[in-house]
Design a protein that fits this description.
- With 222 residues, the protein is mainly alpha-helical.
- The termini are far apart.
- The chain has ten helices and no strands.
- It is 77% helix and 0% strand.
């Protein structure tokens, strides 16, 4: 009986030693070291390595303030890889999860840039341009002193020009089909929403032409 007890105790001690040895083998660097390594990997465009380091850090140090920074860094990796739809979603998640964080302006700005990366020509769907303008407008309104405000303002103008151009593109389409009321509605949108755009002059000329054609054909503007 004593021999059995001794054997079990010995086995238990050995298992503890093996457990300690296994723990020692998993020598995880501190959170700051992991984060700096991840940033360095991003700077050198080693994105797979960066993703692994970020994942390790968030798993090992979930309550570290740097774990929140790692969320942004992960979104940055998606952005740099030009996975713009995914990066936009990640920056949005950061803002929603940490609305009072000091880096929310950065998250909004980079989310706007993610949509900027998805811009299409005036004849295509302009949802990315519309969303980008909304985001940059909100950024400028909420954080007018932000270091990102100036560039956001420039890209907002660019987005509005694209949206105005799209309205004219659709107006021309309706005009060719002689759908005058629909065409007039589009040019009216330009004059109302994008009156300071380069497209406003053409919109004004088109409005006059459309009204003249409507008068000739007996179509009222009502």
């Amino acid at each position: 009986m004593k021999s059995l007890i001794y054997t079990l105790a010995l086995l238990f001690a050995v298992s503890l030693l093996w457990g300690c040895a296994g723990a020692e083998k998993r020598d995880v660097p501190p959170a700051e070291a992991l984060f700096n390594q991840a940033k360095n990997a991003v700077e050198h465009e080693n994105f797979e390595e960066a993703d692994e380091l970020i994942m390790t850090m968030r798993e090992e140090y979930p309550f570290s303030p740097l774990a929140i920074e790692a969320e942004l860094l992960s979104a940055d990796v998606l952005y740099l890889r030009e996975n713009f739809a995914e990066s936009a979603a990640s920056y949005r998640a950061f803002e929603e999860n940490h609305p009072a964080h000091a880096r929310v302006p950065y998250a909004i700005y980079k989310r706007g840039l993610s949509y900027y990366g998805q811009l299409e020509t005036e004849g295509r769907d302009q949802t990315p341009a519309k969303t980008m303008v909304e985001l940059f407008t909100r950024l400028i309104s909420a954080y007018p002193s932000s270091e990102y405000a100036a560039d956001a303002g420039e890209k907002t103008k660019e987005g509005k020009e694209l949206l105005a151009g799209h309205e004219l593109y659709v107006a021309r389409f309706y005009l060719r089909k002689e759908e005058y009321k629909a065409a007039l509605g589009r040019v009216t949108n330009v004059l109302r929403d994008y009156h300071d755009s380069k497209a406003a002059g053409e919109a004004s000329r088109m409005a006059d032409e459309i009204r003249a054609r409507m008068q000739e054909t007996g179509i009222t503007t009502e």
